[in-house]
């Protein structure tokens, strides 16, 4: 996520935008936001996006449940490309993954400050986390995900978008709930320096697992081993044979793999899995913009090794949310978990930050 910082007014696996703290006193504000010009059916480019400005009324009827939020941090994540396509299977699978209409606001997860509210559960200047937009302000309707932040946590606000937000929950839930790891097991993390991967690796180490990961540069490899405590790591771009690289890092095979890459990475991981291995899949970034890279695993391996493969969404992990938050807060306070963020500034930076994720530009 990348988090973008708004210069006038962010989005862990992924990018964040932080707006300024200035509170408008007018009954109307200029809202700057990012939109797509047309559906994007390949790799995203700068020319696919535009920065638009709209007049946003701050007048809300007293009986209305609609609220207006000043965005502070908004998340930028690879899976959002699926909403920008003219057609994607994800758009018909879940309610909140509908196709984005060109010219309209783009939904995302973020943190903001309450600007206008007549609801008893939200007061002016309250800090909230929930579904916002790639813009400086968001209009949030009743029923949309929006929760008041606990000020006693005393973490940077950006943490609530990343390590304490969807990226953190995906890492924790995918690893513990879906894969059900045991101390001493061998865990693989591809895209290990990303918003989810760097947390999966740390959770696994805290459990007492052996962890090895891959990244796209030597700088990232060194970061994984020296800063995050991975047992081993390799630069996949320098490996002539991915299967040999995994054999080198996992001479006794892989037990657990949390995947958000798909493609050849998933194929290779499955070929090196041990019997009764578990794979949790929360994304397939290598396949989002190029259908020819789809994974084609050896199905006999899956059958005879009895490998479990399960896709999951954030909504599937709510049963472990309380445990995730409690444990993660404890690890952060104790210095056992490092939250790595990639933050850019200003609404204008969102398109380039989004595109950069598909090129592996981000860490965290």
Q: Mind explaining what this structure looks like?
A:
Helix 2 packs across helix 3. This protein is of the alpha/beta class. Strands 1, 4, 5, 6, 7, 8 and 15 form a seven-stranded mixed beta sheet that branches. A six-stranded parallel beta sheet has the order 11-10-9-12-13-14, with helices on both faces. It folds into two domains: 178 residues, Quinone Oxidoreductase, Chain A, domain 1 (Alpha-Beta Complex); 150 residues, Rossmann fold, CATH 3.40.50. It is globular and about 65 Å long. It is built from ten helices and 15 strands. Helix content is 24%, strand content 25%. The longest helix has 13 residues.
What secondary-structure arrangement, pairings included, does this model have?
Elements: E1 2-5, E2 28-36, E3 49-57, E4 67-76, H1 81-84, E5 107-116, E6 127-133, E7 137-140, E8 146-148, H2 166-178, E9 186-189, H3 197-207, E10 210-215, H4 218-226, E11 232-235, H5 242-249, E12 254-259, H6 263-271, E13 273-281, H7 285-288, H8 299-304, E14 308-311, H9 321-333, E15 343-345, H10 350-358
Parallel strand pairs: 1-15, 9-10, 9-12, 10-11, 12-13, 13-14
Antiparallel strand pairs: 1-4, 2-3, 4-5, 4-7, 5-6, 6-8
Helix pairs in contact: 2-3, 2-9
Domain Alcohol dehydrogenase-like C-terminal: 196-316
Organism: Capsicum annuum (Capsicum pepper)
InterPro entries: ADH-like_C, ADH_N_2, GroES-like_sf, MDR_fam, NAD(P)-bd_dom_sf
């Amino acid at each position: 996520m990348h988090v973008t910082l708004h210069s006038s007014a962010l989005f862990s696996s992924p990018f964040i935008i932080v707006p300024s703290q200035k509170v408008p006193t007018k009954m109307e504000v200029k809202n700057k936001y990012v939109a797509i010009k047309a559906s994007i059916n390949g790799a995203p480019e700068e020319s696919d996006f535009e920065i638009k400005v709209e007049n946003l009324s701050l007048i809300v009827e007293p009986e209305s449940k609609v609220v207006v939020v000043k965005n502070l941090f908004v998340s930028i994540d690879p899976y959002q490309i699926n909403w920008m396509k003219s057609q994607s299977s994800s758009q018909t699978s879940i309610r909140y993954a509908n196709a984005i209409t060109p010219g309209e606001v783009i939904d995302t997860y973020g943190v903001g400050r309450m600007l206008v509210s007549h609801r008893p559960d939200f007061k002016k200047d309250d800090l909230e986390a929930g579904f916002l937009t790639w813009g400086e302000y968001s209009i949030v309707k009743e029923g949309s995900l929006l929760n008041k932040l606990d000020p006693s946590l005393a973490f940077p606000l950006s943490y609530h978008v990343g390590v304490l937000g969807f990226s953190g929950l995906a890492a924790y839930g995918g690893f513990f709930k879906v894969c059900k790891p045991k101390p001493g097991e061998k865990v693989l993390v591809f895209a290990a320096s990303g918003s989810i991967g760097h947390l999966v690796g740390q959770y696994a180490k805290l459990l007492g697992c052996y962890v090895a990961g891959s990244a796209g540069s030597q700088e990232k490899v060194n970061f994984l081993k020296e800063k995050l405590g991975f047992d081993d790591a390799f630069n996949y771009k320098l490996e002539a044979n991915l299967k040999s690289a995994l054999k080198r890092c996992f001479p006794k095979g892989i037990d657990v793999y949390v995947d958000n890459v798909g493609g050849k990475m998933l194929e290779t991981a499955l070929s090196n899995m041990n019997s009764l291995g578990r794979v949790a899949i929360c994304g397939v970034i290598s396949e989002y913009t190029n259908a020819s890279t789809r994974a084609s695993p050896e199905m006999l391996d899956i059958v005879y090794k009895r490998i479990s493969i399960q896709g999951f969404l954030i909504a599937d992990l709510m049963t472990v949310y309380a445990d995730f938050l409690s444990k993660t807060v404890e690890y952060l306070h104790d210095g056992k978990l490092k939250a790595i963020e990639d933050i850019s500034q200003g609404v204008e930076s969102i398109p380039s930050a989004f595109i950069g994720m598909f090129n592996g530009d981000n860490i965290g």
